[in-house]
Structures are given as structure tokens and as C-alpha cells.
Specification:
alpha/beta; single chain; Aspartate Aminotransferase, domain 2; Aspartate Aminotransferase, domain 1; 7-stranded mixed β-sheet; 4-stranded antiparallel β-sheet; 425 residues
Amino acid sequence: MAVTSMKSARGRGEPVAPAPAFSPDDIRGDFPILQTTAHGKRLAYLDNAATSQKPQAVIAAMTRYYNSQNANIHRGVYQLSMEATAAYEAARERVRQFINATDSREIVFVRGATEAINLVATSWGGANVRSGDEIILSTLEHHSNIVPWQMLAKRAGAVLRVIPINDAGELCLDEYEKLLNPRTRLVAITHVSNALGTITPVRRMVRMAHAAGALALVDGAQSVPHLPIDVQDIDCDFFVFSGHKICGPTGIGVLYGRQAILQAMPPYQGGGDMIETVTFDKTTYAAAPQRFEAGTPNISGALGLAAALDYVSGIGMDRLAGYEHQLLLYAQEKLSRIKGLKIVGTAAEKAAVISFVLSYAHPHDVGTILDGQGVAIRTGHHCCQPVMDRYGIPATARASLAFYNTREDVDQLVLGLETVKEVFG
């Protein structure tokens, strides 16, 4: 998802600079699913905020593992196991490079951003949050960055505070500043809103959290695929993302945590490969990240994620962002011409997510009719019910763009919405 302003530097959670021209025609052939149809029509896949499509390079990496590398890791002394272990740890190092962490030991493989947040809430939160402590979230959060903190607050007797948003869908930073106080233990904020596309000023917000003596977790599920990320520059204590949003497989994700913080956290789960010694009297645990990777991990998923990071890096994040920005502008201009359509979320810094409502049709009906036209969008509350409550609506229709989308995809969406108007308008 690109941004509507192109003026910032790498990794600050803000828009990136203009990039060399990019044409999706050069890479669409890398994605087998984009060659398929839906209801006999050309597939216009516009639900990238939910999950991205996978290039052949990712599919091949996972197939290669099962064809020629399949063995368990960290256990065997035979060649195949050692090769699988080396490939898995190389994937960890690839993630470290991609987000510019200091050490590969700061990278924990998990099932996705959801599990990463739950890990922090259970492990760090259970050890550090007490009755009367406060955790700050924002109105923009996905349910995955709300519910784990609610569960922690209930267990610990802590209090949740919420940063409001304005009508454009931007965080009210003056209100955020008022919420920070000596009782604040953690600020957990999204980097890019999956419901509205708002890009939040995470670098500034992390700095404010630290000034108040709190830690900061950044949910990067929607930012990692589309913004250059530098966790050292953002200076966050935790950063989470899911592989399937960035052309990788499902069931694999990443928790980044500062090494000193991870080493001080108790285990999240117990099992094999996260221990040093076990007796019936006492167990001692391995150092991070192994401490948090109990049992056999998603080895093929880690290798697929590494291949996905190689793929997007090979194209160039700046090139992708520059192209997506132009596609976003084109889509917004086209949609603005449709009578009765209102875009929900108009932040000045926004990724290529367009949530909208039609005055004459429910979003679910919109999605159903568009599906018949070969257009795949998401409808509903997008696991962001507080956002919908803020605007007084039950749901939106959401078209989310990626670098492999084209103007033809947008035109197909617009044509489908004309069909909706004929049926309901």
C-alpha cells in the first residue's frame, strides 16, 4: 500500500521518496493466481490488506524444502537436519536484515502478528503489568491489538486508555500526550490502519512513550509490505508482522523485540527445543529466541517468508511505493465520480486502502455483486469495530491495492460499482 505523500526517509513510519518507474506488467506473470478467473471473468484481486498473493519464487522455495530439505531442525546431527537448520536460521537473518534489527536473536518466529502480540501480552505483560498500571491503545487498532491487552488488563487489574481519532481518521496526538503518565507501562499502536489506511507517526509516538517511561509495541502487519522499515530508527521495543501480508505464506510471522527485553521475559509456551535442562524438579530455559519457539516450528513457512522478502527487495520498496501511490490517486479520482459513494478515512498520510460506503447499498451487497464481476474486495468491519463505531456505521467496503494491481483492476471495480448502482440506486 503506497502513500498519498512522497516526502519522507526510510524507516520513520512516514511516506517514502519518489522512486523509479515500475510497471506491474513486468511481474504479474510471477503470480499464478492472477492468471485465473472468477465467475468466468478476469480476476481483479483488491483484498490485499487481508492477504497478499504469492509469487512463484515463494511457492518454489517451500516446495524445494519439502522435496529436498525436509528434516526437523536444531536436533539432528545428520546432514539433512543440519541443512534444514541452516536454512531456517538463514531465514531469521534475512528478516533481521529486512527490518534492520541489531541481532538475529531479536527475531522470534511465530504464526503471525496476532500470536506475536499475544506472546508479548502474556509473557512480558504477565511479568510487568500490575493493578493500576495503564496500557495505551488507539481507536485505529485491529482487534488483535485490542483483545490480548483487554485479557491482560482483566488478569492484572490494569486499565486501558484509548487515543481518539479525528474525522479524517488521524490520531489525535494532543490527546495521546495527555494520556501518558507515570502509570503507563506500554503503548501498543498500529503503524498502518487496515480499515482506513492511515499511516501513524510511530517514530514520534514511540519517542513520547519512552519519555514517559513506557515501552512501545508497533503492529506492522500492514506497514511491512509497503513501507521500508527500520526498527532501530523507529526505536520501538517490539514490532510484529505477518508473512502472508508481504507475499509470504500463511502461518508464519515475526516478533521483533529488543534483545535485553526478550532475555528477561519468561517463556510463552513449554515444549521441545525451548529448554536447556528438564527434570521433574526443575526446568531451565534456552535463551531467546529459542525460548519462545516451543515445538517444531513452521520451517517451510520461514523459508517461504525469506523468499518473499527477497522478492520484494529485488524489485525495490521505493519503486513499489511510487507505483502504488499513483494507482491510489487514480482509484480515488475514479471512485469520487460515483454518485452516492463516500470514502471513509481521508488522512493526509495514507496507504492504498480505500474504505467506502454507498448511500443506496449495504457493503455486503456491494461485495456480493462485485464478486460476480470478478472483483474481490473485503466488506464488513475489518476486525476494527471501534473504528466503525467512531463513524457511526456498521461496515464499509474496502478495496486495498498492491504493486501487482493495475489500472485495469481499478476500472473493473468502478464498472462493477456501476452495476451495484443499477441494482440498488
